[in-house]
Amino acid sequence: MTDHPTIVLGSPGLSPDDVVAVARRDAPVTIGEDAAERITASRSVIEALAGDSRPHYGVSTGFGALARVHIPRDQRAQLQRSLVRSHAAGTGEEVEREVVRALMLLRLNTLATGRTGVRLTTAQTYADILNAGLTPVVHEYGSLGCSGDLSPLAHCALAAMGEGQLRDRTGTLRDSGEALAEAGITPVVLAEKEGLALINGTDGMLGMLLLALHDLRDLLRVADVAAAASVEALLGTDTVFAADLQALRPHPGQASAASNIRRVLASSGLITRAVDGEFTRVQDSYSLRCSPQVHGAARDTLAHAAAVARIELGSAVDNPVVTLDGRVESNGNFHGAPVGYVLDFLAIAAADVASISERRTDRFLDVSRNHGLPPFLAADPGLDSGLMIAQYTAAGVVSELKRLAVPASVDSIPSSAMQEDHVSMGWSAARKLRRSVDGLARVLAIELLASTRALDFRERDTAVAGTPAPATAAVHALFRTEINAPATDEFLSPTITSATAFVQGGGVLRAVENVIGTLD
């Protein structure tokens, strides 16, 4: 369980942080009074249509290419059950628990808008399942991102019906009906329109976008720390990060990245600075000098993606919808293009930030470019290989991220007898972005592994005067709590795992921000 405050669905609506809290920390949810009133009001509209002689999509007709088939009133409950059962057609590995929880919460958030026509009891069942820590089994493959994430959402609806499988709070695979009964939750018996309302949305791709945005905000700050640490340990110059130089090209992300790098490097005694009468390096390589430009572009891409996510988070995505004036209208708002595009944009940004990080790592290992460090940062070069293969690992990840940066949203494949003849592939874009975010963290961890190791050699070198900046010294101290200073070669994989945990678990950021305050 969690001690997180209960999140109320309704006015003013979910925030991105709310989604992360429910998905990752099991924050409880409840349906607010205003949302309950909206749900009840829209349900009355649907019930009024039940006896209407005119066809209404999803109420008295079939679905997709079968929308011209009229369904008699006594078969409409079966229509909704059949819809969910047939659309729960996923296959492949199970999707992560946090993704399924985000997906269910976002579907519930749309139900709370009162634009879908479900009964209040149906919406409450979703809240109860979330609060009980029950997670329907959702599979990797099955969504084309239009009409939304049909198959993943159908697996969740199936569990709410007491069918299929889910995992309980301990992660044990359970029969859905048995697990619901044990939790005191009555399975839903779907009424008109409800099956459609539970499966027709962009909730899976949006949930993964919000989780990725949360992680990437931290990783881009770590990237600034890593770049600064590399500049320092390679005896680079910080003059290029000056605020007035950055202001000549006033992209906001670039300004933030350069500010972070300046702050991390403040008071460093290892930075190369011009001295009257002495020849010093006037500029560093692109991977050092252009870090704010690359990291900043990624930040600006993140800001755009966050703006799209905020709009989507406040949207009512369903088809048909109950309008504010009580009409029930078909629409195309379920198409995942807005979300799919930014998911792909972020995968491109993640790949490029990882790429420039790997290039900085590589400079540490080459004696022609590392300014006095031993080959491959080996304690006894030749006998030892140091971080030679750690760079291979980073390069392999970067190569994978470049493949993952190929957009999914430019693809489309027709479905439903050409009724759904253009789809977003947003789910696929989201799945590959999750892998990209993980890969970026690992590449940054290897760069920090190199820079902290380099500091040990700088300390031993009597020809190099000066001490590291307080911020980079804090990162070095953190790494030395679990990772040994360079000596004879050790089993390297656990070392990379520890470094990655420092990045993904927030240890690097905490170490730096405890010294210099919150980074931009």
What is this structure's SSE topology?
Elements: E1 7-9, H1 16-25, E2 29-31, H2 33-49, H3 76-87, E3 91-94, H4 97-111, H5 120-131, E4 135-136, E5 139-141, H6 150-160, E6 165-167, E7 173-175, H7 176-182, H8 194-199, H9 203-233, H10 243-247, H11 252-265, H12 286-289, H13 291-313, E8 321-322, E9 328-329, H14 337-365, H15 388-404, H16 426-460, H17 470-480, H18 492-504, H19 507-516
Parallel strand pairs: 1-2
Antiparallel strand pairs: 3-5, 4-6, 6-7, 8-9
Describe this structure in words.
The protein is mostly helical and 520 residues long. The chain folds into two domains: 7-201, Fumarase/aspartase (N-terminal domain) (Fumarase C, Chain B, domain 1), CATH 1.10.275.10; 209-516, Fumarase C, Chain A, domain 2 (Up-down Bundle), CATH 1.20.200. The chain is built from 19 helices and nine strands. It has helices spanning 16-25, 33-49, 76-87, 97-111, 120-131, 150-160, 176-182, 194-199, 203-233, 243-247, 252-265, 286-289, 291-313, 337-365, 388-404, 426-460, 470-480, 492-504, 507-516; strands at residues 7-9, 29-31, 91-94, 135-136, 139-141, 165-167, 173-175, 321-322, 328-329. The strands form four sheets. It has a three-stranded antiparallel β-sheet. Strands 1-2 form a two-stranded parallel ribbon. The chain has a two-stranded antiparallel sheet with strand order 3-5. Strand 8 (321-322) and strand 9 form a beta hairpin. It starts with 6 loop residues before the first strand and ends with a helix.
